[in-house]
Amino acid sequence: MITSFKDDFVALLNRRTIEYQVADNITRITTPLLDRNNDAIEVYIIKNGKQIKITDDGYIINDLDMSGLTIEKDTLRYKYLQNILANHGVELGENNELMVNADISNYSLKMYLLVQCMSKISDLYVLNKPSIKSLFNEDVKNYLITNDIRFIENPFFIGKSKLTTQFDFAIPRFKDAPERIIKVTSNITLNFARTTIFGWEDIKENRGKDSVLYVIIDDRNRSPSEEITIALNSYGIKPVEWTKIDDFKPELTA
Protein backbone atom coordinates (compact mmCIF):
# COMPACT_ATOMS: atom_id res chain seq x y z
CA MET A 1 0.00 0.00 0.00
CA ILE A 2 1.29 3.45 -0.93
CA THR A 3 1.71 5.62 2.15
CA SER A 4 3.31 8.68 0.54
CA PHE A 5 3.98 9.37 -3.13
CA LYS A 6 6.69 11.85 -2.16
CA ASP A 7 8.43 9.44 0.20
CA ASP A 8 8.36 6.64 -2.38
CA PHE A 9 9.74 8.94 -5.06
CA VAL A 10 12.52 10.24 -2.82
CA ALA A 11 13.35 6.67 -1.79
CA LEU A 12 13.63 5.67 -5.46
CA LEU A 13 16.00 8.57 -6.17
CA ASN A 14 18.05 7.65 -3.12
CA ARG A 15 18.36 3.99 -4.19
CA ARG A 16 19.51 4.97 -7.68
CA THR A 17 21.97 7.65 -6.61
CA ILE A 18 25.51 6.34 -6.12
CA GLU A 19 28.25 8.09 -4.17
CA TYR A 20 31.91 7.21 -4.76
CA GLN A 21 34.94 8.68 -3.02
CA VAL A 22 37.47 9.48 -5.76
CA ALA A 23 39.98 11.19 -3.44
CA ASP A 24 40.07 12.68 0.05
CA ASN A 25 38.38 15.87 -1.15
CA ILE A 26 36.60 14.63 -4.31
CA THR A 27 33.33 12.71 -4.44
CA ARG A 28 31.57 11.47 -7.58
CA ILE A 29 27.78 11.41 -7.56
CA THR A 30 26.05 9.21 -10.13
CA THR A 31 22.44 10.38 -10.48
CA PRO A 32 19.33 8.58 -11.80
CA LEU A 33 18.96 11.20 -14.54
CA LEU A 34 20.12 10.28 -18.04
CA ASP A 35 21.91 12.23 -20.75
CA ARG A 36 21.22 11.93 -24.49
CA ASN A 37 23.27 8.68 -24.61
CA ASN A 38 21.06 7.15 -21.89
CA ASP A 39 24.06 7.24 -19.57
CA ALA A 40 23.65 8.34 -15.97
CA ILE A 41 24.56 11.98 -15.39
CA GLU A 42 27.52 12.30 -13.03
CA VAL A 43 28.96 15.26 -11.13
CA TYR A 44 32.07 15.71 -9.04
CA ILE A 45 32.00 17.46 -5.66
CA ILE A 46 35.34 19.03 -4.78
CA LYS A 47 35.79 20.35 -1.24
CA ASN A 48 38.31 23.07 -0.46
CA GLY A 49 37.91 24.11 3.15
CA LYS A 50 34.41 25.55 3.52
CA GLN A 51 34.03 26.04 -0.22
CA ILE A 52 32.52 23.38 -2.47
CA LYS A 53 32.87 23.20 -6.24
CA ILE A 54 30.51 20.94 -8.19
CA THR A 55 31.42 20.18 -11.80
CA ASP A 56 30.72 17.86 -14.72
CA ASP A 57 34.45 17.97 -15.60
CA GLY A 58 33.59 19.12 -19.13
CA TYR A 59 31.72 15.94 -20.07
CA ILE A 60 28.46 17.35 -21.48
CA ILE A 61 29.79 19.97 -23.91
CA ASN A 62 32.77 17.86 -24.98
CA ASP A 63 30.37 14.99 -25.72
CA LEU A 64 28.27 17.28 -27.92
CA ASP A 65 31.40 18.50 -29.69
CA MET A 66 32.58 14.95 -30.40
CA SER A 67 29.12 14.14 -31.76
CA GLY A 68 29.22 16.97 -34.29
CA LEU A 69 27.38 19.73 -32.44
CA THR A 70 29.96 22.48 -32.03
CA ILE A 71 29.11 25.47 -29.85
CA GLU A 72 31.25 28.51 -30.62
CA LYS A 73 31.07 32.09 -29.40
CA ASP A 74 29.08 34.64 -31.41
CA THR A 75 26.70 31.98 -32.74
CA LEU A 76 23.02 31.35 -32.05
CA ARG A 77 23.90 28.03 -30.41
CA TYR A 78 26.15 29.86 -27.97
CA LYS A 79 23.30 32.23 -27.12
CA TYR A 80 21.06 29.23 -26.37
CA LEU A 81 23.79 27.82 -24.14
CA GLN A 82 24.21 31.10 -22.28
CA ASN A 83 20.45 31.30 -21.64
CA ILE A 84 20.42 27.79 -20.16
CA LEU A 85 23.42 28.58 -17.96
CA ALA A 86 21.87 31.83 -16.72
CA ASN A 87 18.53 30.17 -15.94
CA HIS A 88 20.26 27.59 -13.72
CA GLY A 89 22.96 29.77 -12.17
CA VAL A 90 25.71 27.63 -13.73
CA GLU A 91 29.10 28.85 -14.95
CA LEU A 92 31.08 27.70 -17.98
CA GLY A 93 34.62 27.06 -16.77
CA GLU A 94 37.86 26.00 -18.40
CA ASN A 95 37.87 22.99 -20.74
CA ASN A 96 34.11 23.35 -21.24
CA GLU A 97 33.25 22.32 -17.69
CA LEU A 98 29.83 23.18 -16.29
CA MET A 99 30.23 24.18 -12.65
CA VAL A 100 28.76 25.86 -9.60
CA ASN A 101 30.40 27.12 -6.42
CA ALA A 102 28.61 26.44 -3.16
CA ASP A 103 29.00 25.99 0.58
CA ILE A 104 27.58 23.55 3.10
CA SER A 105 24.32 25.51 3.36
CA ASN A 106 23.33 25.37 -0.32
CA TYR A 107 25.39 22.71 -2.09
CA SER A 108 22.45 20.29 -2.49
CA LEU A 109 20.33 22.92 -4.28
CA LYS A 110 23.30 23.99 -6.41
CA MET A 111 23.97 20.37 -7.37
CA TYR A 112 20.31 19.89 -8.30
CA LEU A 113 20.41 22.98 -10.55
CA LEU A 114 23.67 21.83 -12.15
CA VAL A 115 22.25 18.39 -12.95
CA GLN A 116 19.14 19.97 -14.48
CA CYS A 117 21.35 22.28 -16.53
CA MET A 118 23.47 19.35 -17.76
CA SER A 119 20.36 17.50 -18.87
CA LYS A 120 19.04 20.56 -20.70
CA ILE A 121 22.32 21.21 -22.54
CA SER A 122 22.67 17.54 -23.46
CA ASP A 123 19.24 17.78 -25.10
CA LEU A 124 20.61 20.36 -27.55
CA TYR A 125 21.77 17.36 -29.58
CA VAL A 126 18.21 16.53 -30.56
CA LEU A 127 18.16 19.59 -32.82
CA ASN A 128 17.26 18.03 -36.15
CA LYS A 129 19.14 18.84 -39.35
CA PRO A 130 16.72 21.56 -40.51
CA SER A 131 17.12 23.25 -37.12
CA ILE A 132 20.90 23.01 -37.31
CA LYS A 133 20.83 24.47 -40.81
CA SER A 134 18.62 27.26 -39.51
CA LEU A 135 21.17 28.00 -36.78
CA PHE A 136 23.99 28.15 -39.33
CA ASN A 137 21.89 30.41 -41.56
CA GLU A 138 21.61 32.75 -38.59
CA ASP A 139 25.40 32.66 -38.17
CA VAL A 140 25.85 33.70 -41.80
CA LYS A 141 23.13 36.34 -41.56
CA ASN A 142 24.72 37.84 -38.44
CA TYR A 143 28.08 37.94 -40.23
CA LEU A 144 26.57 39.91 -43.11
CA ILE A 145 24.85 42.32 -40.73
CA THR A 146 27.95 42.78 -38.56
CA ASN A 147 30.01 43.67 -41.63
CA ASP A 148 27.39 46.13 -42.96
CA ILE A 149 26.68 44.01 -46.04
CA ARG A 150 23.28 44.75 -47.55
CA PHE A 151 21.46 41.62 -48.64
CA ILE A 152 18.15 40.13 -49.68
CA GLU A 153 17.05 37.11 -47.67
CA ASN A 154 15.62 33.93 -49.26
CA PRO A 155 15.45 35.23 -52.86
CA PHE A 156 13.74 33.21 -55.61
CA PHE A 157 15.00 33.24 -59.20
CA ILE A 158 13.32 31.84 -62.32
CA GLY A 159 15.58 29.86 -64.65
CA LYS A 160 15.48 29.04 -68.34
CA SER A 161 13.58 25.85 -67.44
CA LYS A 162 10.86 28.13 -65.99
CA LEU A 163 11.50 26.45 -62.64
CA THR A 164 11.98 28.63 -59.55
CA THR A 165 15.11 28.15 -57.43
CA GLN A 166 15.49 29.55 -53.92
CA PHE A 167 18.79 30.70 -52.47
CA ASP A 168 19.60 31.90 -48.96
CA PHE A 169 20.94 35.41 -49.58
CA ALA A 170 21.64 37.77 -52.46
CA ILE A 171 23.90 40.82 -52.36
CA PRO A 172 22.83 43.28 -55.09
CA ARG A 173 25.32 44.53 -57.67
CA PHE A 174 26.83 47.91 -56.84
CA LYS A 175 29.05 49.97 -59.15
CA ASP A 176 31.76 47.55 -60.31
CA ALA A 177 30.76 44.81 -57.87
CA PRO A 178 28.66 42.01 -59.41
CA GLU A 179 25.54 40.45 -57.98
CA ARG A 180 26.58 37.88 -55.37
CA ILE A 181 24.21 35.02 -54.58
CA ILE A 182 24.75 32.84 -51.51
CA LYS A 183 23.75 29.27 -50.75
CA VAL A 184 24.31 28.00 -47.20
CA THR A 185 24.78 24.43 -46.02
CA SER A 186 25.60 22.90 -42.65
CA ASN A 187 26.08 19.44 -44.16
CA ILE A 188 27.79 19.45 -47.55
CA THR A 189 27.14 16.32 -49.62
CA LEU A 190 27.67 15.36 -53.25
CA ASN A 191 23.91 15.34 -53.75
CA PHE A 192 23.68 18.89 -52.39
CA ALA A 193 26.46 19.93 -54.78
CA ARG A 194 24.64 18.38 -57.76
CA THR A 195 21.37 20.12 -56.87
CA THR A 196 23.15 23.45 -56.40
CA ILE A 197 24.98 23.12 -59.73
CA PHE A 198 21.72 22.36 -61.54
CA GLY A 199 19.96 25.35 -59.98
CA TRP A 200 22.86 27.67 -60.79
CA GLU A 201 23.16 26.50 -64.39
CA ASP A 202 19.42 27.05 -64.78
CA ILE A 203 19.37 30.68 -63.56
CA LYS A 204 22.78 32.17 -64.27
CA GLU A 205 22.04 33.27 -67.84
CA ASN A 206 19.10 35.29 -66.54
CA ARG A 207 21.19 36.85 -63.76
CA GLY A 208 23.92 38.37 -65.93
CA LYS A 209 27.26 36.90 -66.92
CA ASP A 210 29.14 38.52 -64.03
CA SER A 211 26.87 37.21 -61.23
CA VAL A 212 28.66 34.96 -58.76
CA LEU A 213 27.38 32.10 -56.60
CA TYR A 214 29.02 31.40 -53.24
CA VAL A 215 28.31 28.21 -51.30
CA ILE A 216 29.10 28.87 -47.63
CA ILE A 217 29.88 25.58 -45.91
CA ASP A 218 29.93 24.89 -42.17
CA ASP A 219 33.31 23.14 -42.01
CA ARG A 220 33.68 23.26 -38.22
CA ASN A 221 32.87 19.56 -37.96
CA ARG A 222 33.61 18.28 -41.46
CA SER A 223 35.43 19.87 -44.38
CA PRO A 224 34.08 19.46 -47.92
CA SER A 225 35.67 16.63 -49.88
CA GLU A 226 38.01 17.38 -52.76
CA GLU A 227 35.45 15.84 -55.12
CA ILE A 228 32.79 18.33 -54.03
CA THR A 229 35.16 21.30 -54.21
CA ILE A 230 36.28 20.38 -57.73
CA ALA A 231 32.67 19.91 -58.86
CA LEU A 232 31.60 23.35 -57.60
CA ASN A 233 34.66 25.11 -59.00
CA SER A 234 34.12 23.44 -62.38
CA TYR A 235 30.86 25.37 -62.75
CA GLY A 236 32.25 28.67 -61.52
CA ILE A 237 30.72 28.28 -58.05
CA LYS A 238 32.88 29.48 -55.17
CA PRO A 239 32.94 27.14 -52.14
CA VAL A 240 33.56 29.13 -48.95
CA GLU A 241 34.49 27.32 -45.76
CA TRP A 242 33.02 29.10 -42.73
CA THR A 243 36.33 29.08 -40.86
CA LYS A 244 37.85 31.01 -43.80
CA ILE A 245 34.94 33.38 -44.42
CA ASP A 246 37.11 36.44 -43.76
CA ASP A 247 39.23 35.56 -46.81
CA PHE A 248 36.16 36.41 -48.93
CA LYS A 249 35.15 39.51 -46.98
CA PRO A 250 36.55 41.98 -49.58
CA GLU A 251 34.43 40.33 -52.30
CA LEU A 252 31.27 40.32 -50.19
CA THR A 253 31.60 43.89 -48.92
CA ALA A 254 32.47 45.49 -52.29
TrEMBL record:
InterPro entries named in the record: DUF1828, DUF1829
Residues covered by the DUF1828 domain: 31-121
Highest taxon listed in the record's lineage: Bacteria
DUF1829 domain segment(s): 159-244
TM spans (from-to): none
Stated name of the protein: DUF1828 domain-containing protein
Organism: Tepidimicrobium xylanilyticum
